[in-house]
Write a structure and sequence with these properties.
single chain, mainly beta, Neuraminidase, Jelly Rolls, 4 domains, 5-stranded antiparallel β-sheet, globular, TRIM-NHL_E3_ligases, NHL repeat containing protein
Length: 774
């Protein structure tokens, strides 16, 4: 009863028909679980479960047999986000209990399936054309699966035929087990002689036909995987295509935007070319969705545009991005790879923002599903350029800046290929640009800078977990353990590094058990506590629940792995155990760590300190110069602590205020939280270094401390600055603390990268005498 906000029921075996019973709703409109607001269509399955199209609440409610409190299974308020509905008026279920909903306010029919919800009919806009609806009210299936719809405002009943080959996708979307593993050593299936230099455009279809664009020769090369026949070569009027897409009928869509301002279609039936989209830049990625809509990502314009291939209109519509570089939810920064699923949801590899964005069908505001700005941190990306989904909608991402392929799963993200640093070895990648699956689940990658196509074989045996072997390891973090900067700056996290010996390649799970909040990090080949992001292949905090980590990861023989067990909070100690589950036992051995020395320098910036202004501003920017010497070469972390916003610049031999880039090694002004700097730098014995500590805001004074951590003590002394040299002044307190960690000796200093706290005009005082470079 639409106006009574209720569903009633009565038994047809009751001859009096006066015993109506409330099936759902209180009779008062509302959005609580026991309320309805203007209900329309209803459906009762063989379990006597009641489904209600709760129109004004924009949702579908399930009232299980005998229950008066409903569960939202589609629309607003569902526990797991499903699909956005607007005034649904009809709902039915198929034989597999998938929902089919008449989304009247959106003038369409949507349906659920193994891959979630998707639009079935009326997917573009309201109207009276044969593929459009206007204010539909109810729907029904016939015996053959055809859909009948009462198209109210068009005063007609429409029939939509079931296509037996519906959603015949041209690309592969394999289904993987949670422990799926790929061989870390890739096979080169095409080298520079075939693909040319810096390959980008690449595609593998469901017949395992491989397509790649040779930009040097302006050709498309295609061959059957594993075939000994010569490749077929297609050439035409396109120039240096960045991307291509192949549809199920064999037509090829080719980027030709940079030189000719268009996207071309090569027809497999006629072997002819035709322009199908006009654009004003190159398309870094192309995609044709199930509705025959063509998408183009334009990195130079920070936008993704689309055009219906079934429409006579030639204009492009915006699919994502405002056209202005930015990181807001409706903006993109140099977007690259794109993927559109069967729900018409758009995924964008947002390279410049180091994230992957999901734009749900019809939405211009995206949701970050991978990268540093996700609601729940997932994985750190650096210029992702490709994204695809498997059959379970798990993400596979080309993390180009980190030279690797990463994938998501039940246990979060993990590295799949290129996990051992950039390079040209079979296990390495350098600036990969795209990926594709073949029919068997193997991963193909365009290894751009290595001028090759790599194939990483899917190891089916990695899914065989019938015989699981467990290995246990027990220890305790104590105040005598080494410490390191887990979060980047706070060097007060105790840790234990454990060497892992793998006797059989396969998928392994590492679960912590402790009454302290543990954090786990897995490294391949090497662990450097001063650079904890290097060689990192997986990390986890709380996947096991109860503040315990669970790292689920493929491991291979002949590779040394290091598990670092530490804590979520600093300065925490306590016992812990690690349970390792996998196809064989593993060797676990604690690594001994040589000592790390912490030296602390305390001082204060006052109104009598040396100073210089920022360009074009008034006020004094105070600074202090500190000479640093070490008696052992190695890698050091130099960080600040203060209530003031500080920047740090380090120089070799001398600091010249009149030429602040001279002798500059490195600068940082926000490497740590709370506006403090952190410098990770190699220092050499018998060399003088000058650290310049400066305020980032005018007229700010206050105390500060400098902490230098490394393989030996550091001597820090305040200096007075002249344009050519330094002279020691009154020393401040320096304390030294010995802890333990691992160190690596490096003989070359880190290159300068960043911005100086001063430039252009310089004004400062030395010994009460004013100086200026004006």
């Amino acid at each position: 009863m639409h106006y009574q906000h209720q569903v009633l029921k009565t038994s047809l075996n009751d001859p009096m028909m006066d015993s109506n019973v409330v099936a759902a709703g209180t009779g008062i409109y509302g959005s609580a679980s026991n309320q309805l607001y203007g209900p329309h269509g209803i459906f009762v399955d063989v379990n006597l479960d009641l489904y209600v199209a709760d129109s004004y609440n924009d949702r579908v409610q399930l009232f299980q047999s005998g229950e008066l409190h409903g569960i939202t299974v589609a629309g607003s308020g569902s526990l797991i986000p499903t699909i956005t509905l607007h005034y649904p008026t009809g709902v039915i279920l198929d034989a597999d209990k998938y929902l089919f909903i008449l989304d009247s306010g959106n003038h369409r029919i949507v349906g659920s399936g193994a891959n979630g919800f998707r639009c079935l009919v009326g997917c573009h806009e309201m109207g009276s054309q044969s593929n459009q609806l206007s204010g539909p009210v109810s729907l029904s299936f016939d015996h053959f699966g055809n859909i009948f719809v009462s198209d109210q405002r068009n005063s007609r009943i429409q029939k939509f035929l079931l296509m037996k080959d519906s959603f015949d996708l041209s690309f592969n979307q394999p289904k993987f087990c949670p422990t799926a593993t790929w061989n870390s050593n890739g096979i080169t299936v095409a080298n520079q002689s075939i693909v040319g230099r810096h390959p980008n455009a690449f595609f593998v279809n469901t017949n395992n036909t491989v397509y790649v664009a040779n930009q040097e020769k302006n050709t498309i090369v295609m061959w059957q995987e594993g075939s000994v026949n010569l490749p077929q070569i297609i050439s035409g009027g396109f120039m240096q295509p960045l991307s291509l897409f192949v549809t199920s009928n064999g037509d090829i869509y080719i980027d030709d935007g940079d030189h000719n301002g268009r996207v071309l279609k090569w027809s497999a039936a006629t072997s002819t070319f035709a322009a199908v989209m006009n654009i004003n830049s190159s398309c870094a990625s192309l995609f044709v969705d199930i509705d025959d809509t063509l998408y183009c990502s334009m990195p130079d314009h920070h936008q993704v545009v689309k055009r219906s291939l079934s429409s006579l209109m030639n204009s492009n519509a915006v699919a994502a991005g405002t056209g202005i570089y930015g990181s807001a939810s409706n903006q993109l920064g140099s977007p690259r790879g794109i993927f559109v699923d069967v729900n018409l949801d758009l995924y964008v590899a947002d390279c410049g923002n180091n994230r992957v964005q999901l734009f749900q069908s019809g939405e211009l505001h995206g949701i970050t599903v991978a990268g540093s700005t996700t609601l729940y941190p997932t994985i750190t990306l650096r210029c992702p350029v490709g994204v695809i989904l498997d059959a379970d909608k798990y993400l596979f991402i080309v993390d180009s800046g980190n030279h690797r392929i990463v994938g998501s799963g039940m246990n979060g993200f993990r590295c799949l290929a290129g996990c051992y640093g950039m390079g040209s070895q079979s296990s390495q990648l350098t600036s990969p640009s795209s990926l594709s699956f073949d029919r068997s689940g193997n991963i193909f990658v365009t290894d751009q800078t290595n001028h090759r196509i790599q194939k990483f074989q899917y190891l089916e045996e990695s899914c065989d977990m019938s015989s699981v072997v467990e290995t246990m390891y027990s220890s305790a973090l104590t105040s005598n353990h080494p410490i390191y900067p887990r979060t980047g700056c706070d060097i007060s996290y105790y840790y234990e590094a454990i060497k892992i010996q793998v006797y059989k390649s396969g998928h392994y799970s590492f679960n912590s058990m402790s009454n302290i909040n543990t954090y786990g990090y897995m490294y391949a080949k090497y662990f450097d506590p001063f650079s904890p992001s290097a060689f990192l292949i997986s990390a986890d905090d709380d996947s096991s629940g109860n503040s315990q980590f669970n790292i689920s990861i493929p491991l291979e023989i002949n590779i040394e792995y290091i598990l670092v067990v530490t804590t979520f909070n600093s300065n925490v100690t306590g016992p812990f155990s690690i349970r390792v589950s996998g196809p064989n036992r593993v060797g676990l051995e604690r690594l001994n760590s040589p000592p790390v020395i912490q030296s602390t320098y305390l001082s204060m910036l006052t109104e009598n300190s040396q100073h210089f202004p920022q360009p074009f501003e008034t006020g004094k920017y105070y600074y202090e110069s500190i000479q640093i010497n070490v008696d052992m070469s190695g890698l050091f972390i130099i960080s600040s602590k203060s209530r003031s916003d500080l920047s740090g610049s380090i120089y070799k031999n001398s600091f010249n205020p009149l030429n602040p880039t001279e002798n500059l090694l490195e600068v940082d002004n926000n490497g740590c939280s709370d506006n403090q700097f952190k410098l990770l730098i190699a220092l050499e014995v018998n060399t003088k270094y000058i650290l310049v500590v400066a305020t980032s805001q005018a007229n700010v004074t206050g105390t500060f401390s400098i902490i230098v951590s490394g393989p030996t003590k550091a001597v820090l002394e305040r200096t007075s600055i002249s344009s050519t040299s330094t002279s020691k002044s009154t020393s401040t307190a320096t304390t030294t603390k010995t802890v333990s960690s691992t160190s690596k000796s490096i003989s070359t200093a880190t290159a300068f990268s960043g911005s100086l706290p001063f430039k252009y005009k310089l004004e400062f005082t030395i010994d009460s005498i004013p100086y200026s470079n004006k």
